Prior knowledge:
By secondary structure, the chain is α/β, with parallel strands linked by helices. It has helices at 2-11, 27-39, 62-90, 111-131, 149-162, 166-175, 185-196, and strands at 44-47, 93-98, 136-143, 207-210. The chain has 7 helices and 4 strands. A 4-stranded parallel β-sheet has the order 1-2-3-4, with helices on both faces.
Amino acid sequence: METARHIREATGQRVRAIEADISRPGTGDRLVETCLETFGRLDSLVTNAGGPPPGTFLNLKPEDWEEAAQLTLMSAVRLCYAAAPVMKEQGSGTILAMTSITVKQPLPNLILSNSLRLGVTGLIKTLADELAPFGIRANAICPGWTRTARVEQLLEDRARRNGTTPKEEAAKVAASIPLGRMGTPEEFAAAAAFLVSDAASFINGVSLLVDGGMARGVT
Length: 219
């Protein structure tokens, strides 16, 4: 609710905030219904959920995978099921999935993210093909190291495992990025806003890295 207040004050626009757990069935339908009741249409869907916990394969249990699948993969699936019919009827819309650099370059101790976000990428790439005839674009955006609460959690986890401090781990991360620093939420938001805007009207089915050049593969 605090975020909604900040957006409202900064933009002067109408904002509707809803408390919801998107890992639970039915939440996507409620979010889309509320959007339609408030604004009369749905132009963009951005799927975003907190990242699954860090860990290696042998340190995690099958139930950890089940919980992470509901949070990371099935939340995106359900939101797309709720939004796509509305956009199809409108004849327009954009879907943007928040994934991670891990879909291009898996990172250590993040097997849940490395695995399940690839499922989201496959979903988006397929929807880009299936929904395009209805005027709907689907893309993904892949953040690298960006100074958010999630990254602070990962830095603290690395520090515990390595016997260092989060500050030391942050310095290691920055050294691995060609630009020499982590990104900011504002930089990531600018890329996301572009992908859902009319300026990106001929961009469909891409997974855009916003990582300062960290991923070394040819994309």
